[in-house]
Amino acid sequence: MNKVIKTDICVIGAGSGGLSVAAGAVQMGADVVLVEKAKMGGDCLNTGCVPSKALLAAAHAVQNARTASRFGVTTGQVEVNFAKAMDHVHSVISGIAPHDSVERFEDLGCTVIQAEGRFIAPDTLIAGDTEIRAKRFVIATGSRAAVPPIPGLDSVSYFTNENIFENRVCPEHLIIVGGGPIGLEMAQAHQQLGAKVTVIEMMTILPKDDPDMVEVVRDAIKASDITLYEGAKTKEVKSSGDKVRVIIEHDGIEITLEGSHLLLATGRRPNVENLGLEQAGIAFERTGISVDARLRTSNRKIFAIGDVTGGLQFTHMAGYDAGIVIRNALFKLPAKVNYSAVPWVTYTHPEVAQVGMTEATARARYGDNIRVVKWDYAENDRARAEDDTTGFIKVITSSKGHILGAGIVGRQAGELIGVWSLAISRKMKIGAIAGMITPYPTLGELSKRVAGAWYTPSLFSEKTRKIVRFLLKLG
Ligand SMILES: Cc1cc2nc3c(=O)[nH]c(=O)nc-3n(C[C@H](O)[C@H](O)[C@H](O)COP(=O)(O)OP(=O)(O)OC[C@H]3O[C@@H](n4cnc5c(N)ncnc54)[C@H](O)[C@@H]3O)c2cc1C
Ligand SMILES: NC(=O)c1ccc[n+]([C@@H]2O[C@H](COP(=O)([O-])OP(=O)(O)OC[C@H]3O[C@@H](n4cnc5c(N)ncnc54)[C@H](O)[C@@H]3O)[C@@H](O)[C@H]2O)c1
């Protein structure tokens, strides 16, 4: 006989999205049941953002040591203990884990059930031996690595984001299929930690980003000894003793690569299986659960948020979605998502950050009725002081100066994009950024200078000179 719980909100999945809804809802007075079948914290904490950025931090430490001689610092031979780098990764995860733990959520007042959730009716979920009847459900079951249909893949062992952070031996030669954010972040991390790395991308790397910015990353990757094949077809994978062979076709030529390890970083699949979506009357597609602008599924009492909806798959988006659901489910407000000011960052060196429209999107929508301004890192004194002048900031505005989008490629691009997110979400004009006082010398001055560049043609024009000369004559 199943135990029956009646509750206000039942959240399925304790990752970035589910935890945000549960924590918010319970602290605002709702009865909340949280169902998680694996580790609390989901992908971001255990197999995504946190371990990848921690590994990159270790890799950057190595790179800084290797290149310190340009500052007159002698380090001697730089040695990497790969297992200790992974210890760092896991200590960061352990440090954050209490915040996402069962104990914390139970202390907040949630009922946490550690089992797989599956709908058996439009208003009932079963998890272990508990039947949960909720006024509202929130599906936040995330996504997993997509495994492409490459012949031979089932005969070799390979990494995905789910197991690569368990590896404690530096790969001799890591072959990565996929040149998106996961592929490139892992490529640089492993290359800097001492592995030989090859990336195979079927189209172009970072296909969702501005090609001008991607060009800067491509140059950096090629300069760093990572071998990159773009427009390459992965035809077959074979094992060869303790090695893996990957046969690709590139520029009409067949190439056999031999590596010690293989990583698949070829996109994501939403976790929609075994959820009983049909029993709950929830429509879904291969790309994810279909939702309206209020994040309601086709069963209006059930919401879906984060990666499982197949939209922009970022932790901050799952968190944003959670806020929309809380307003709808708890406060009965018809809050709708607005994705016009969503930033994203790929943490390569140089970093790539984007918010709002890219130049291509803006041109597709407004034709030539836009303005594009750029400013180089090479013109920034702080970037010079730190001997890291690669990159630029690019801002796209309407002809009247409304900010439509901004992209930054270079050092700390991710830290710099925030001001542009705020500007776009608050519908600011470029003058607001140009008028801002930024401390000297900071990379933040890049934003002010690019905004200033918007005014340069009119500010230093013959017309302005005539007006100034006239006014000065008045005494
Ligand atoms: C390598 C990597 C690096 C990344 N780096 C970044 C980054 O730097 N910045 C960024 O913003 N994003 C990053 N992401 C993306 C980010 O991790 C995801 O967008 C985010 O975790 C999505 O949150 P979510 O709540 O939708 O899903 P998840 O965090 O995946 O949580 C879903 C949870 O649901 C559980 N679950 C699934 N099915 C059931 C079920 N039937 N019953 C019970 N529980 C279930 C799962 O076990 C999981 O814990 C990265 C992803 C990867 C893979
Ligand atoms: N810094 C970040 O915020 C960050 C970092 C990592 C991941 N993520 C999130 O996770 C998602 C997944 O990352 P991802 O890099 O796996 O996916 P992705 O979809 O962004 O990129 C996958 C890449 O693999 C290529 N590809 C697909 N099949 C291939 C094949 N058979 N052979 C060669 N190339 C192939 C695609 O053309 C694409 O360029 C991202 O879109 C993002 O939402 C974010």
What can you tell me about this protein's structure?
- The chain is of the alpha/beta class.
- It has three domains: 3-40 and 101-145 and 269-329, FAD/NAD(P)-binding domain (3-Layer(bba) Sandwich); 153-266, FAD/NAD(P)-binding domain, CATH 3.50.50.60; 343-458, 2-Layer Sandwich (Enolase-like, domain 1), CATH 3.30.390.30.
- The chain has 15 helices and 23 strands.
- It has helices at 16-27, 42-47, 49-66, 82-96, 102-108, 181-192, 211-223, 315-329, 359-366, 381-385, 413-416, 418-425, 430-434, 445-459, 462-473, and strands spanning 3-12, 32-35, 111-113, 117-121, 124-127, 130-139, 143-145, 173-177, 196-200, 227-229, 233-240, 243-250, 253-259, 261-264, 268-270, 284-285, 288-289, 302-304, 343-346, 351-356, 370-376, 391-398, 403-410.
- Strands 1, 2, 3, 4, 5, 6 and 18 form a seven-stranded mixed sheet that branches.
- A hairpin with a 2-residue loop joins β4 (117-121) and β5 (124-127).
- α1 (16-27) packs parallel to α8 (315-329), α3 packs across α4 and α3 (49-66) runs parallel beside α6.
- The N and C termini lie far apart (95 Å).
- The mean pLDDT is 97.
- The structure holds flavin-adenine dinucleotide (FAD) and nicotinamide-adenine-dinucleotide.
Largest sheet: 7 strands, mixed
Could you give me the name of the CATH homologous superfamily of the largest domain? FAD/NAD(P)-binding domain
Q: How would you describe the shape? A: globular
**Beta strand count:** 23
Task: Specify the structural class.
Answer: alpha/beta
Domain Pyridine nucleotide-disulphide oxidoreductase dimerisation: 342-446
Cofactor: FAD
Protein name: Dihydrolipoamide dehydrogenase
Keywords: Disulfide bond, FAD, Flavoprotein, NAD, NADP, Nucleotide-binding, Oxidoreductase, Redox-active center
